[in-house]
């Protein structure tokens, strides 16, 4: 390895690929750096393309993730990225790496999980690839479409905008903490039946596809991203890509009830779950203040709670106002792959 550099950070590596190896053409509206690649189809429509991989023992643990959950999760992650652009998912392809020991029934269960989600959102699953390998892994790519002049970009946040987030945060981490703390499969299953709501957020995340389309139909979208690596990490992405700063009000964070309950039992801080817990698949977006108030009302009438958690400001970085209203820099950490 002498003279060769090891990979320490996923984001630094992606940045290097973006600077040195990205190939764009005239039709590309957004390339590396957003939730999906965006290209111009014609005068009015944009095509969206995103891909995501789940690897055994890295992204899921079969001692508490069922094959149905796994299929569900693989599609949900991609649908969430299409939602984060304000788009509508259209079709998906699946590549599956199958190790020894995985049966036809297991694979069918994975597809049953995917199929349920696909039907719910009108997505076709119509292609893929099948290979043998050492670890079970599932890669899905989803194609979607949006209006060319109204794509929610990570680079779209403007100073003066309000920062909004759908749903509540910290619930997925709370579910994961409980699942991790009970690695014995039989107790896990028992606990799972007792705590379905808690585990649902981690094992069966619901992407905000309908909410994204509602927002895109009513508003000119500014900044938008989904929460896959944690709120703090996504706020930093938004701030960096938009070349602005963000100030968050800790008191306005929609901390999930389950996060408060689990953090209490495990003697953790629920705010930590809320800021740094991954796989929430909520939408984080920015709109001018008046529109933000309208968006909150429209989404809650449609059954999805939405909170205004802060403001976009000139400058850079992400700060949080604590109880004493003193701004504290929010560390850029979240789920890291390396
Ligand atoms: P998300 O969490 O929304 O799925 P990622 O953090 O996985 O996004 O990726 C961030 C950006 O980097 C995306 O635009 C993605 O397409 C791009 N990206 C990630 N890995 C690679 C790669 N190996 N080559 C090119 N682009 C990549
Ligand atoms: Mg994303």
Describe this structure as you would to a colleague.
This protein has 338 residues and is α+β, with helices and mostly antiparallel strands. It folds into two domains: 128 residues, 60s Ribosomal Protein L30, Chain: A (2-Layer Sandwich); 176 residues, Phosphoribosyl-aminoimidazole Synthetase, Chain A, domain 2 (Alpha-Beta Complex). The chain has eleven helices and 13 strands. The strands form two sheets. The protein has a seven-stranded mixed β-sheet. A six-stranded mixed β-sheet has the order 1-2-3-6-4-5. A hairpin with a 4-residue loop joins β2 and β3. α4 runs parallel beside α9. 42% of the residues are buried. Bound molecules: adenosine-5'-diphosphate and magnesium ion (MG). The site of adenosine-5'-diphosphate has 10 residues, from α1.
Number of separate domains: 2
CATH top level assignment of the largest domain? Alpha Beta
Bulk shape: globular
Q: Low-confidence stretches at least 5 residues in length (pLDDT < 50)?
A: none
List of distinct ligands in this structure: adenosine-5'-diphosphate, magnesium ion
Number of helices: 11
Name given to the CATH architecture of the largest domain: Alpha-Beta Complex
Query: What is the third-level CATH name, the topology of the largest domain?
Result: Phosphoribosyl-aminoimidazole Synthetase, Chain A, domain 2
- For this structure, what is the CATH homologous superfamily of the largest domain? PurM-like C-terminal domain
Portion in strands: 15-25%
Task: Write the element-wise H/E pattern from the N-terminal end onward.
Answer: HEEEHEHEEEHHHHEHEHHEHEEE
User: What's the end-to-end separation, in Å?
Assistant: 18 Å
